[in-house]
Amino acid sequence: MQQTVQSDFSQGKVWKNIMRLAIPMTLAQLIQVLYNVVDRMYIGHLPDASSLALTGVGLTFPIITMINAFTNLFGMGGAPLFSISRGQQKEERASEIQKTSFVMLCLTGAVLMILAYLFRRPIMYAFGASDLTYPYADAYLQTYLLGTIPVMIAIGMNSFINAQGFGRVGMLTVTLGAVINILLDPVFIFVLDLGVRGAGFATALSQLVSAVWVLHFLTGHRVLIPLHLKGFRLRLSLVKEITALGFSGFIMAVTNGLCQIVCNKMLFIFGGDLYVGVMTVLNSVREILSLAVTGITNSAQPVLGYNYGAGQYRRVRSGILFISIACAAYTTFVWLIIMWQPDPFIRLFSSDPALLEAGRSALHAYFFGFFFMSFQFAGQSTFTALGRSKQAVFFSLFRKVIIVVPLTILLPYVGSLGVHGVFWAEPISNAVGGLACFITMMLTVWRELVRLEQPSK
């Protein structure tokens, strides 16, 4: 009986259903972020070469982001479709969606690992590497790539665990790997004296543990719809459905990678290796501070999708309202903290006085008006949860490609902004893109939900 209540999102208060998933999911995402963030914390405090090593690791972000993009394509694309099918009581279709997502994650993971390894040198220099930072980037990337397939399975298939109501199990998925990563990092980096390469080894091993845990649970008897590939045939029609819905998350990740590349190049031109290192710190801080927002909005997707599939349109509106208010309140609070005390956030990743001085003003600019980001996430997650892939894709492209990239290139040349122009591009895009996405969602999805409620009155 308890399992039925946990997985039936049409019962109980909507916000409680969301938070029941969000709390363990946010903790899981926090631990997931620790996979890479802990590496940066240790690397940023290496003796003699901390800033160069940190910059080198930061140069690998676009490749890691691309791996995450394909994870979103098949994981975050399949999970909402899976939830909608469950809400419609189409369990056989839901099972096929889960299997298809798993196979595509494995195939694309293998291709990405091979391509990134073969072309890593020209890619790194295109991303802004110098002769001083490339050796660190190369050492980290070679070992990190060993965990490509495991990390895609762990993150992508964990979405299907959460979609079935097992939020705590989803948290355990990454907890096991993260604890191993935290323990192995100092051993590989300092004790075995492997430096940056050791951080990559520790991360790859921890990702493997997480993937094994996910597969063990999804093939077991506790899940409502287990993962079994016996008799499975890849259906291109289903692949198209999954990729269509996951394309927004894919585009969001790809455009994030594009922005990172453009930012690194412009920062290298106007400020050199030091400011590329500053951007590494800013991206790391953003990852941590965005966790609560992504945890709430990602947790809302299976709840919104299930209720939409079940025809519970009032409950869908209630969920949208909750995530909008909760995310706006949190991001406003975080913004005030950063404006008041920026230094502790920077010192997490580096004790270099030059980086601290440059990073202080950069942090203030980059996170200005941080609360606008919540509107992008609320609108984006609503579009994705209800199968509105075209709108979700458009607003991903609109904020990053149409706003951020041009501003990142142009603003440094305006007046004497220089490197600060790169940092100001982000808050401007948050305001314009976030409001455009949220207002459009309210004028389209919200109005349609109100209209659909009418016959049931």
| Beginning-to-end CA distance, first to last residue | 30 Å
Shape: globular
The helix-and-strand class reads mainly alpha
Number of domains: 1
Largest sheet: none
Strand content: under 5%
Query: Low-confidence spans: pLDDT under 50, at least 5 residues?
Result: 1-6
The residue-averaged pLDDT reads 86
- Secondary structure tally: strands: 0
- Determine the number of helices (DSSP H or I, runs of at least 4 residues): 19
What Rg do the Cα atoms give?
Answer: 21 Å
Portion of residues in helices? over 70%
Helix and strand string, N-terminal first?
HHHHHHHHHHHHHHHHHHH
Model description:
The structure is a single chain. By secondary structure, this protein is mainly alpha-helical. It has one domain. The protein is 82% helix and 0% strand. The chain has helices at residues 2-7, 14-43, 50-58, 61-87, 91-118, 120-126, 134-144, 148-163, 167-191, 195-218, 236-271, 273-289, 291-309, 313-340, 343-347, 353-366, 372-385, 389-410, 419-453. Mean pLDDT is 86; it is low at 1-6.
Structure characteristics:
457 residues, mainly alpha
Task: Give me the secondary-structure topology.
Elements lengths: L1 H6 L6 H30 L6 H9 L2 H27 L3 H28 L1 H7 L7 H11 L3 H16 L3 H25 L3 H24 L17 H36 L1 H17 L1 H19 L3 H28 L2 H5 L5 H14 L5 H14 L3 H22 L8 H35 L4
Brief summary:
It is built from 19 helices and no strands. By secondary structure, it is an all-alpha fold.
